[in-house]
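The material for today's practical consists of a large collection of protein records. Read left to right, the backbone structure tokens trace the chain's path through space. An example says more than a description, so a record of this kind follows:
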Amino acid sequence: MRVARLLTAALGVAILVGACTTGTDTKTSATAWPPSDGRGDCAVDKQTDVPATMRDGTVLRSDVYRPKTTDPVPVILMRTQYGKSAPQIQPSRYQTPDWFASHCYLVVIQDVRGLGRSDGVFSEFGNDIQDGYDSVEWAAALPGSSGKVGMYGSSYVGATQWLAAVGAPPHLTTIVPANTASDYYDGWTYEGGAFRLAFVEPWAMGTIGTESAQRRNDGPTVKELTDAVSNFTSWMKFQPYKDFPPMQPGNPAVAPWFFDWIRHSARDDYWKQWSIREHYPQVQIPVLDVEGWYDAFLAGGTENFAGMVAQGGTPEAKQNQRLVIGPWDHVGWGRPDSPFAPRLKQIGAVANSPINDLMLAWFDQFLKGKSNGVSGSPRVDYFLMGANRWKSATNWPLPQTQWQDYYLSGSGANGIIGRMGKLTTHAPGGAADPDRYVYDPADPAPSSGGHSCCGASSGPQGPFEQGAVEQRSDVLTYDTDPLSADTEVTGPVTVKLWASSTAPDTDFVARLEVVSPDGTSVNLNNGILRAAFRDSLSDPSLLVPGRPYQFTIKIWPTSYQFKAGDRIRIAVTSSDYPQYAPNPNTGDRFGDNARTQPATQTIYKDAAHPSSVRLPIIPAGAEGSSTFDLRPGK
């Protein structure tokens, strides 16, 4: 079987599992992706542009990879908006479809409605519940199919799986989504009410917008979008967003969905109709979810796992949820040639993604009925950065978590002025001077790493040194004393920030960092809250300038082992550009104009306003956490 390869992955040795052409076993070098070994016993034939008719008569087309066997076999389906001829193989992610087919699966790669070779008009998220249902049932009835269907794919191709699963087609047996969200407003297009600028604009222009124009034979729009993508950093400065020129707001054929996203800047019914988090009871199947600590959709992935364990539609679904989180950004899955953050790449082969072998074992269990122990109870496999090793637990957040509150204290927390801000476990007992800074939207604090999307050249992703950013007077830092022992922090992080602003609306950003004894500070993860959304993502309300409010900022999850002598840092500011669109401080409707104004921000840390951060501390040797092992049955 594949136990040897799975063990190899667990030990952190580079996985060499198979590049191939259809029906062959061509050898390639160890550095190529996908490499050549690991193929199954079935030869494979390929059919192109196989039609499937949806319930409204629209025809979607697929490439079908058919194993040469007389036995009925399960189907593995990918529904992609990125072209069925390039099914997320590069940069160094999935094995080729015929590699999976060689393991005696019928593999179907389908272009979603309105893109690639499929008919119809594309609408982001809009057709994927019904089309997903119809496509699963069509694939289950293909000649040679056993009637069981599994799905796989990353990012939007993960969304097509969850949306299909919400529709509950009877022949959908399992899904394996990667790097995807639980909600397409919160944690996808917006975060904490703030527009995810560095992800949304380049992605919308450079993939779906350009592809749609190519299908319409709209050469001028293709050129305009191509030119805009090549100069996306300049275009991200453009305001108002409702008039974004590359998407041609006056031409509804180009990208009406983009301007829908701008108009629907709160989590209203437009977004709720597709939200996964509100439909876990409708999902009745096992799920293997793969995420990264610096991925653009990490928080949604962890929410999907916990939501399915608690609310999944069947006992089998609740028991067969597995989450794997590695030290990856959105597309840098640990392969040597993946374009990802240098500090992640330096971790080495132990960080390589095990997705192909693990996914194949998962499909073997749930589609072929092989008892290989890949699931049977909820499981979280996570990479502990700092220690650089894999661990395993039984739930999320980890059941052995000890929540520890640290309180903001000290004075002079502004960058180069002194960095005297402190984190202490003692709640403030009386009066304390607040910290202040001026936030100017015309000069926002720059992003240095983060959890944006989609490539290393566009969205801020990964861990980077924060020293230059923290020299700014509009960035506050608060540190613990040097730690006396190694300390694992794994899980979500919450900042309760008492603050006021001279503006009717503004943003607050919080970042968790590790500070080494030499003073180097590196981001672990971050969060943002648009102040008007402090009580509700659906019903924003403006501030009374000068009044203190408590703001809950959700720093996205991380897993890091701080070493003795390290310090834990929380940085507080009001911008993180271009990861997020700067708040103009005016209280105007988002995207409507380009007007901005500076604001003075006051951070309180007295007994009546105890600003704090809650950290998930994992005790050393705690029961319920063990060394990671991918082998079936372990």
